[in-house]
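fyi for ur records
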Amino acid sequence: MSVNDGLAAVLASLRPGRDIAGLLGADPRLCAEVLGVDGVAVSVVTREGPSELVWCSGEVSARLEDLQFTLGQGPGPETTLSCAPVLEPDVRRLPDDRWPGLSAEMAALGIGAVFCLPLHVGAACLGTMTLQRGAPGPLADDRATGAWLVAGALTAALLAGGPAQEAFAAAEDGSDFYRAAVHQATGMISVQAGVPLAQALVLLRAYAFGHGRTVVEVAEDVVARRLRFEDDEAGPGTAAGEGTDGP
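which gave:
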Protein backbone atom coordinates (compact mmCIF):
# COMPACT_ATOMS: atom_id res chain seq x y z
CA MET A 1 0.00 0.00 0.00
CA SER A 2 1.38 3.41 -0.97
CA VAL A 3 1.57 6.31 1.46
CA ASN A 4 -1.28 8.08 -0.31
CA ASP A 5 -3.43 4.95 -0.31
CA GLY A 6 -2.64 4.36 3.35
CA LEU A 7 -3.51 7.93 4.29
CA ALA A 8 -6.76 7.71 2.33
CA ALA A 9 -7.64 4.50 4.22
CA VAL A 10 -6.94 6.10 7.59
CA LEU A 11 -8.95 9.22 6.79
CA ALA A 12 -11.87 7.20 5.44
CA SER A 13 -12.08 5.10 8.61
CA LEU A 14 -11.85 7.92 11.16
CA ARG A 15 -15.39 8.25 12.39
CA PRO A 16 -17.38 8.21 15.63
CA GLY A 17 -17.81 4.68 16.93
CA ARG A 18 -20.88 3.10 18.46
CA ASP A 19 -19.29 3.08 21.89
CA ILE A 20 -16.29 4.60 23.67
CA ALA A 21 -13.98 1.75 22.70
CA GLY A 22 -14.87 2.36 19.05
CA LEU A 23 -14.84 6.14 19.23
CA LEU A 24 -12.30 6.23 16.43
CA GLY A 25 -12.67 3.66 13.70
CA ALA A 26 -9.18 3.59 12.16
CA ASP A 27 -6.27 1.35 13.18
CA PRO A 28 -3.75 3.55 15.04
CA ARG A 29 -0.90 1.23 14.02
CA LEU A 30 -1.70 1.83 10.35
CA CYS A 31 -1.88 5.55 11.08
CA ALA A 32 1.60 5.49 12.65
CA GLU A 33 3.00 3.53 9.71
CA VAL A 34 1.50 5.91 7.15
CA LEU A 35 2.84 8.96 8.99
CA GLY A 36 6.33 7.47 9.23
CA VAL A 37 6.49 7.28 13.03
CA ASP A 38 6.74 4.49 15.59
CA GLY A 39 3.63 5.36 17.53
CA VAL A 40 0.58 7.60 17.78
CA ALA A 41 -1.71 8.43 20.68
CA VAL A 42 -4.81 10.59 20.96
CA SER A 43 -6.01 12.06 24.24
CA VAL A 44 -9.11 14.17 24.76
CA VAL A 45 -9.60 16.92 27.32
CA THR A 46 -12.40 16.15 29.76
CA ARG A 47 -14.72 18.74 31.20
CA GLU A 48 -12.93 18.35 34.54
CA GLY A 49 -9.56 19.16 32.96
CA PRO A 50 -7.41 15.98 32.93
CA SER A 51 -6.75 14.36 29.57
CA GLU A 52 -8.02 10.90 28.74
CA LEU A 53 -6.30 8.47 26.39
CA VAL A 54 -8.78 7.23 23.77
CA TRP A 55 -6.67 5.91 20.85
CA CYS A 56 -3.17 4.46 20.88
CA SER A 57 -0.93 2.35 18.66
CA GLY A 58 1.25 0.60 21.23
CA GLU A 59 2.99 0.34 24.57
CA VAL A 60 5.58 3.13 24.12
CA SER A 61 2.96 5.70 23.11
CA ALA A 62 0.70 4.63 25.98
CA ARG A 63 3.59 4.91 28.42
CA LEU A 64 4.45 8.39 27.12
CA GLU A 65 0.85 9.51 27.66
CA ASP A 66 0.90 8.06 31.18
CA LEU A 67 4.15 9.85 32.01
CA GLN A 68 2.81 13.17 30.78
CA PHE A 69 -0.35 12.66 32.78
CA THR A 70 1.64 11.75 35.89
CA LEU A 71 4.13 14.62 35.62
CA GLY A 72 1.80 17.24 34.20
CA GLN A 73 4.48 18.20 31.66
CA GLY A 74 5.43 17.37 28.11
CA PRO A 75 4.25 18.08 24.58
CA GLY A 76 0.64 17.07 25.34
CA PRO A 77 0.09 19.44 28.28
CA GLU A 78 1.88 22.24 26.39
CA THR A 79 -0.27 21.75 23.31
CA THR A 80 -3.45 21.56 25.38
CA LEU A 81 -2.60 24.83 27.11
CA SER A 82 -1.47 26.77 24.04
CA CYS A 83 -3.65 25.06 21.41
CA ALA A 84 -0.52 25.12 19.22
CA PRO A 85 1.68 22.31 17.92
CA VAL A 86 4.77 21.23 19.84
CA LEU A 87 7.39 19.77 17.50
CA GLU A 88 10.62 18.39 18.93
CA PRO A 89 12.65 16.57 16.25
CA ASP A 90 15.47 15.71 18.68
CA VAL A 91 14.50 15.30 22.31
CA ARG A 92 18.14 14.72 23.25
CA ARG A 93 18.81 18.38 22.56
CA LEU A 94 16.06 19.74 24.79
CA PRO A 95 17.14 22.35 27.36
CA ASP A 96 17.52 20.89 30.85
CA ASP A 97 14.60 22.94 32.15
CA ARG A 98 12.16 22.12 29.33
CA TRP A 99 10.62 18.90 30.68
CA PRO A 100 12.98 18.04 33.56
CA GLY A 101 11.02 15.04 34.77
CA LEU A 102 10.13 13.70 31.35
CA SER A 103 13.27 13.94 29.21
CA ALA A 104 15.14 11.09 30.91
CA GLU A 105 12.02 8.91 30.79
CA MET A 106 11.63 9.51 27.05
CA ALA A 107 15.26 8.58 26.52
CA ALA A 108 14.71 5.36 28.49
CA LEU A 109 11.76 4.56 26.23
CA GLY A 110 13.94 5.08 23.17
CA ILE A 111 12.03 8.14 21.97
CA GLY A 112 14.16 10.39 19.78
CA ALA A 113 11.52 12.72 18.35
CA VAL A 114 8.03 13.76 19.37
CA PHE A 115 5.39 15.79 17.54
CA CYS A 116 2.13 16.87 19.17
CA LEU A 117 -0.73 18.49 17.23
CA PRO A 118 -3.85 20.06 18.74
CA LEU A 119 -7.32 18.78 17.95
CA HIS A 120 -9.01 22.14 18.08
CA VAL A 121 -11.81 24.37 16.91
CA GLY A 122 -10.59 27.94 17.00
CA ALA A 123 -9.00 28.54 20.39
CA ALA A 124 -10.78 25.55 21.98
CA CYS A 125 -8.49 22.53 22.30
CA LEU A 126 -10.48 19.29 22.40
CA GLY A 127 -7.44 17.05 22.65
CA THR A 128 -4.06 16.16 21.22
CA MET A 129 -2.49 13.76 18.76
CA THR A 130 1.06 12.82 19.75
CA LEU A 131 3.44 11.12 17.33
CA GLN A 132 6.69 9.59 18.59
CA ARG A 133 9.65 8.05 16.80
CA GLY A 134 12.87 6.45 17.90
CA ALA A 135 14.99 8.15 15.25
CA PRO A 136 15.55 11.90 15.67
CA GLY A 137 14.75 14.28 12.83
CA PRO A 138 11.79 16.30 11.55
CA LEU A 139 8.79 14.85 9.81
CA ALA A 140 9.09 14.86 6.04
CA ASP A 141 6.84 17.46 4.41
CA ASP A 142 4.38 14.90 3.04
CA ARG A 143 4.16 13.13 6.42
CA ALA A 144 3.65 16.45 8.22
CA THR A 145 0.84 17.33 5.81
CA GLY A 146 -0.66 13.91 6.40
CA ALA A 147 -0.45 14.39 10.18
CA TRP A 148 -2.42 17.64 9.98
CA LEU A 149 -5.03 15.95 7.77
CA VAL A 150 -5.40 13.14 10.30
CA ALA A 151 -5.65 15.67 13.16
CA GLY A 152 -8.45 17.44 11.29
CA ALA A 153 -10.28 14.17 10.70
CA LEU A 154 -9.89 13.23 14.37
CA THR A 155 -11.34 16.57 15.40
CA ALA A 156 -14.31 16.07 13.10
CA ALA A 157 -14.86 12.59 14.56
CA LEU A 158 -14.86 13.97 18.10
CA LEU A 159 -17.28 16.75 17.14
CA ALA A 160 -19.70 14.50 15.29
CA GLY A 161 -21.90 14.12 18.36
CA GLY A 162 -23.51 11.00 19.75
CA PRO A 163 -20.73 8.70 21.00
CA ALA A 164 -18.26 11.56 21.33
CA GLN A 165 -20.61 13.51 23.59
CA GLU A 166 -21.24 10.37 25.61
CA ALA A 167 -17.49 9.88 25.90
CA PHE A 168 -16.93 13.34 27.35
CA ALA A 169 -19.83 12.79 29.77
CA ALA A 170 -18.39 9.43 30.81
CA ALA A 171 -15.05 11.05 31.53
CA GLU A 172 -16.82 13.34 33.98
CA ASP A 173 -18.11 10.47 36.10
CA GLY A 174 -15.05 8.29 35.50
CA SER A 175 -16.73 5.34 33.78
CA ASP A 176 -15.53 3.20 30.86
CA PHE A 177 -12.26 5.04 30.32
CA TYR A 178 -8.64 3.93 30.48
CA ARG A 179 -8.11 6.25 33.46
CA ALA A 180 -11.47 5.57 35.12
CA ALA A 181 -9.71 4.66 38.38
CA VAL A 182 -7.95 8.04 38.42
CA HIS A 183 -11.25 9.92 38.48
CA GLN A 184 -12.59 7.73 41.28
CA ALA A 185 -9.36 7.81 43.29
CA THR A 186 -9.13 11.61 43.05
CA GLY A 187 -12.54 11.91 44.70
CA MET A 188 -11.57 9.45 47.41
CA ILE A 189 -8.29 11.25 48.14
CA SER A 190 -10.15 14.56 48.30
CA VAL A 191 -12.29 13.14 51.12
CA GLN A 192 -9.46 11.30 52.88
CA ALA A 193 -7.01 14.21 52.86
CA GLY A 194 -9.62 16.96 53.16
CA VAL A 195 -8.39 18.82 50.08
CA PRO A 196 -10.02 20.07 46.85
CA LEU A 197 -10.13 17.74 43.85
CA ALA A 198 -7.37 19.63 42.02
CA GLN A 199 -5.01 19.22 44.98
CA ALA A 200 -6.03 15.58 45.37
CA LEU A 201 -4.89 14.94 41.80
CA VAL A 202 -1.58 16.67 42.57
CA LEU A 203 -1.09 14.38 45.58
CA LEU A 204 -1.85 11.34 43.46
CA ARG A 205 0.60 12.40 40.75
CA ALA A 206 3.33 13.23 43.26
CA TYR A 207 3.01 9.88 45.00
CA ALA A 208 3.11 8.03 41.67
CA PHE A 209 6.21 9.86 40.47
CA GLY A 210 7.97 9.50 43.82
CA HIS A 211 7.43 5.74 43.79
CA GLY A 212 8.25 5.16 40.13
CA ARG A 213 4.71 4.10 39.26
CA THR A 214 2.01 5.34 36.91
CA VAL A 215 -0.92 7.38 38.15
CA VAL A 216 -3.27 4.62 37.02
CA GLU A 217 -1.46 1.98 39.09
CA VAL A 218 -1.56 4.10 42.25
CA ALA A 219 -5.18 5.06 41.62
CA GLU A 220 -6.12 1.40 41.45
CA ASP A 221 -4.52 0.88 44.87
CA VAL A 222 -6.55 3.77 46.28
CA VAL A 223 -9.80 2.47 44.80
CA ALA A 224 -9.02 -1.02 46.15
CA ARG A 225 -8.32 0.58 49.56
CA ARG A 226 -4.75 -0.69 49.63
CA LEU A 227 -3.57 2.91 49.99
CA ARG A 228 -5.05 5.88 51.80
CA PHE A 229 -4.11 9.55 51.79
CA GLU A 230 -4.64 10.90 55.28
CA ASP A 231 -4.76 14.42 56.68
CA ASP A 232 -2.69 14.32 59.89
CA GLU A 233 -0.82 16.87 61.98
CA ALA A 234 1.97 16.96 59.41
CA GLY A 235 -0.46 17.78 56.62
CA PRO A 236 -1.76 15.55 53.84
CA GLY A 237 0.34 12.43 53.55
CA THR A 238 -0.03 8.79 52.65
CA ALA A 239 -0.76 5.81 54.81
CA ALA A 240 -1.15 2.18 53.81
CA GLY A 241 -4.33 0.46 54.86
CA GLU A 242 -6.20 -2.62 53.83
CA GLY A 243 -9.80 -3.52 54.35
CA THR A 244 -10.60 0.02 55.50
CA ASP A 245 -14.19 1.15 55.33
CA GLY A 246 -15.19 4.46 53.85
CA PRO A 247 -13.61 6.58 51.10
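Residues 162-176, 232-236, 240-244 have pLDDT under 50 and may be disordered. thats all i got for now
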